[in-house]
Amino acid sequence: MSADRHSMAANDKTRRMVILSVWAVVLLGLPLWWKTTRVYRAELPYDSIDQWNQWKTCQPKFPIRVNLHLSETKQQQSGNNPTLSDVTQGVIRRVQELNTAHGVKESLLAVEFIAGKPWTGSINKDITGKDKIRFYRTSTVPGTYDFYISPSNVTHASIRSQRQGFIQVQSWNTDHIIDTIVETSGAVFGSEERIIRQLLNTNEDTQGVRKVQDQLKTVKYAPGYQLTFSLFSGDASNGVREWKMQEVIHGEAAVPLVEKTKPYLAPFIKTMSTVSKFTIESQIQHYASLAFTPQLDSSSQEYYLTPDALPNFINAAEWSLASTVSSLPSLNFLTYVPKPSESPLVIKTGPGAPKSTTNSFLIPRWGGVAILNRDTDRTKRAEEHPEVITVQDLEPVMRVFLTQLRDLMGVTDLSTTAQSSSSFPIVFHKSLNEAPTTWELDNLLRRRSAENLVDSLATISSLARLVRDTPNMVVLDHIQRDVTDALGDIGRSCQHLSRQEYVEALAASRDGLVKSETAFFDPTMVSMLYFPDEHKYAIYMPLFVPISVPLLMSLLREVKRLKEKKKQAQEDKDKDSQGHDDRNIKHDKQE
Question: Which InterPro entries does the record cross-reference, listed alphabetically (predicted)?
Answer without folding.
Answer: PtdIno-glycan_biosynth_class_S
